[in-house]
Design brief:
Elements: H1 7-16, H2 50-53, E1 93-96, E2 102-107, E3 110-113, H3 119-132, H4 152-158, E4 163-164, H5 173-186, H6 198-201, H7 203-209, E5 225-226, H8 227-233, E6 236-240, E7 243-244, E8 249-250, H9 262-273, H10 277-280, H11 295-298, E9 303-310, E10 315-318, E11 330-336, E12 339-343, E13 353-357, E14 362-365, E15 374-379, H12 396-405, E16 408-415
Antiparallel strand pairs: 1-2, 2-3, 3-14, 4-5, 6-9, 7-8, 9-16, 10-15, 11-14, 11-16, 12-13, 12-15
Helix pairs in contact: 3-12, 4-12
Length: 426
């Protein structure tokens, strides 16, 4: 019987499967599901490889048997690390970066830079993500539902048991009754949003469609929780231009966005500038080649999302298409536990390329690569690198950062909403 799901969905289901205690196979996965798993930033020695030590390379794919339930097991044999696939056969090209390191062109317009950020830089980015980027005026995923203290992470470090009240407790009786009635009326009717790409609609149309947006509805059932519990429930922080998740577009109701962190913008510009884009786009048709020569002068990230993953979290296949320039670089930084990242094409029927992204890795998506489906079906449990584990000389803040990341992963991604020279008018 032919599987009704496209290849990308089948690959997602395979890697996120938790029907047994065994880890999903990374070796010998059928090409109908995905291409061979690439782990381009793994250490030379097995003993230094947290992914291998955790047993992620221990299983080879076995086709499911119809009518037979998966065998429950807690065994995690390490086995032998799979050899690197033949890069040339897999269409992967290595390129020399301006800082002397090696990068890899893993798909059209997509460059993976293994281990770009060293230990000190990773610690600084983790600290900024948790302690700075979670502060106002940056919106957080929980803002709609909870009256969050402005110093959430400071309290996580010093007073994690402090209670935080849900916003619905602030409502008077009439407002609560009105919102309850509206929630009952719209229960189960949440529409699936299929928004046209912003670069085809244009600024004025995006702005017009968002004019009636009044924000997401708060939960009327949320209970009081501790700061420590809520710090584990935060799913994202928004930097710069505010992204409206329910409309899949940016809020252009103001001329001036929330300031984007200058240090992060500088790091993103630097990483874009070390890539030899002429080599990345060598052989690419002119109509599919962006004006990369200008990026060294005018690439300016002005929006971003910090994704906070707990070990059971996933990110389903999607395409980022809310920016008005759909070809400029999206810089994605991995921190903490490793993740299995699926990078596809513009068609979910095409088998995706699985990449293991480790702490300190940077993936840049540009050009046609910006229109490729991608997602994170699995955070690799027990893969936290040794350099992010607690040390006796850690400061109190760094100790709290390491306590949070001990069961988590952070992805910081930055992008540019507008083409150079474009001036939005609210």
């Amino acid at each position: 019987m032919t599987n009704a799901h496209p290849a990308f969905r089948q690959a997602e289901k395979h890697f996120k499967n938790r029907a047994t205690h065994a880890l999903p196979a990374l070796r010998n996965v059928p090409p109908a599901l995905c291409r061979p798993v690439l782990d381009l930033s793994r250490p030379d020695s097995c003993e230094d490889d947290e992914v291998w030590l955790a047993g992620w390379w221990g299983r080879a794919y076995e086709p499911p048997v119809t009518g037979q339930r998966p065998r429950k097991t807690k065994e995690r044999p390490r086995g032998e690390r799979a050899p690197h696939p033949n890069h040339e056969a897999e269409g992967v090209r290595s390129i020399s970066l301006a800082d002397g390191k090696i990068g890899y062109v893993v798909s059209d317009g997509c460059v993976l830079i293994p281990g770009h950020f060293d230990t000190a830089a990773q610690e600084a980015l983790l600290t900024a993500s948790l302690a700075e980027y979670t502060r106002p005026p940056n919106p957080l995923s929980l803002d709609t539902h909870y009256a969050l203290p402005i110093n959430m992470f400071e309290l996580y470090a010093s007073a994690p048991d402090r209670p935080v009240l849900p916003r619905h407790l602030e409502l008077d009786e009439d407002e609560r009754a009105s919102r309850t009635e509206e929630a009952q009326r719209t229960a189960g009717t949440r529409p699936l949003i299929e928004t046209a790409p912003a670069f085809t609609m244009g600024f004025d149309e995006v702005k017009r469609r968002n004019a009636t947006w009044t924000g997401d509805a708060m939960s009327l059932k949320a209970g009081t929780k501790s700061v420590g519990a809520l710090m584990k429930e935060i799913r994202w922080a928004n930097l710069g231009w505010v992204y409206q998740w329910s409309t899949k577009s940016y809020d252009f109701s103001t001329d001036t966005p929330i300031p984007f962190p200058p240090d992060l913008a500088k790091q993103c510009r630097e990483v874009v500038n070390i890539v030899p884009w002429d080599q990345v786009y060598a052989g690419t048709e002119a109509e599919n080649t962006p004006n990369f020569a200008a990026w060294s002068e005018d690439y300016e990230p002005d929006t971003g999302i910090v994704n906070f993953y707990q070990l059971n979290d996933t990110l389903m296949a999607h395409v980022d298409r809310s920016e008005l320039d759909n070809s400029r670089p999206l810089v994605s930084i991995s921190l903490g536990h490793a993740a299995l990242f699926l990078l596809g094409s513009g068609d979910r029927a095409d088998p995706p390329r699985p990449l293991i992204l480790r702490s300190g890795d940077v993936l840049i998506m540009s050009g046609r690569g910006r229109q490729a489906y991608h997602g994170v079906p699995r955070i690799l449990e027990d893969s936290l690198p040794a350099h992010l584990r607690p040390r006796e000389d850690d400061s109190p803040t760094l100790a709290a950062v390491k306590r949070w990341i001990s069961t988590a992963r952070i992805n910081v991604n930055a992008r540019q909403v507008f083409p150079p020279g474009f001036k939005p008018v609210a």
